[in-house]
Amino acid sequence: MEKSKFIKTLVEDIGVDIVAGILMAVSVQVFAAPAGFATAGVNGIALITYHLFGWKMGIVVMIINIPLVVLCYKFLGRRFLLNSIKSLIITSVLLDLIAPPLIPVYEGSPLLAAIFNGMLGGAAFAMIFMRSSSTGGTDFVIMTINKLRPHFSVGLATQIVDGIIILAGAYFFKNIDAVLYGIISVLMTGLVMDRIMVGANIGKVAFVMTKSPYQIAETINEELDRGSTFIKSEGSFTRIERNMVMCACATRELYKIKRIVREIDPEAFLVITDSREVYGEGFNPMDE
């Protein structure tokens, strides 16, 4: 049973790596390379060497990662390291296979090239990270720094490394715009990764302090088919104890809740916050 589960997981991992590798190759070969800017990470270094010497980017990525694996393997978990090596090999091979003239290149606006490079790259990285893997490179370096210096900001270390690569791209591409396009690409990558990994269905949570909690909760249930939770609370000024209504909802449903509260109790106190993830009935399933 355990063996069949392992094989199933391995097949799924390889399938995800292949799809992610295709997206990554398209993002680099179709958009970044023709537009002449460096992205973050080892792919950015590979783009620079491709521009200077015409070296195959997938091979460069592999070569750079060999010493990183040797230096960092003690600080990385065995399973994560093996998964990352698998993902690295697959994505690096596809980076060189899916290249012109097999696929056409985009020769339009560099700004659009940076945006789509970031979107596709972000989707690819998110898919790989969600399988407890990575593509090596600067990820290994950042994780090692975090192990050796736990109190050092991982975000700061990432920004420093990515900033150096993007600035180097501007120097070698002889174009200051390359810095701007590289920054846009990095921002888009982070945005797409966040939306995929954290959840695209970012919703809202409404907290209602009211003298009519049961009526408001019942109306929300009738009109929106949303359940609510009562939370015992007490106002610090009035010292009156009441049931506060908490309701998680989709963003598009928020205006209905506001209308319900306004109609039932115009004097109610309503607080609305963002919810990054909501799991359970009526929302996302509680998957691993």
What this model shows, in words?
- The protein is built from ten helices and four strands.
- Helix 2 crosses helix 3 (57-72), helix 2 (41-53) packs parallel to helix 7 (154-173) and helix 9 (213-224) packs antiparallel against helix 10.
- By secondary structure, it is an alpha+beta fold.
- The protein has helices at residues 2-35, 41-53, 57-72, 78-97, 110-129, 138-148, 154-173, 177-198, 213-224, 254-264; strands at residues 203-209, 229-234, 241-249, 269-275.
- It folds into two domains: 2-198, no CATH class; 203-275, Alpha-Beta Plaits.
- A four-stranded antiparallel beta sheet has the order 2-3-1-4, covered by helices on one side.
- The mean pLDDT is 88.
- 62% of the residues lie in helices and 10% in strands.
- The two termini are 19 Å apart.
Strand order of the largest sheet: 2-3-1-4
Low-confidence runs of at least 5 consecutive residues: none
- Can you count the helices? 10
H/E element sequence: HHHHHHHHEHEEHE
Mean pLDDT: 88
Determine the oligomeric state from the structure.
single chain
Largest sheet: 4 strands, antiparallel
The total domain count is 2
Number of E-type strands? 4
- % residues in beta strands: 5-15%
**Intertermini distance:** 19 Å
User: Structural class of the secondary structure composition?
Assistant: alpha+beta
Query: Radius of gyration in whole Å, from Cα?
Result: 25 Å
Helix content, binned percent: 55-70%
Dominant shape? elongated
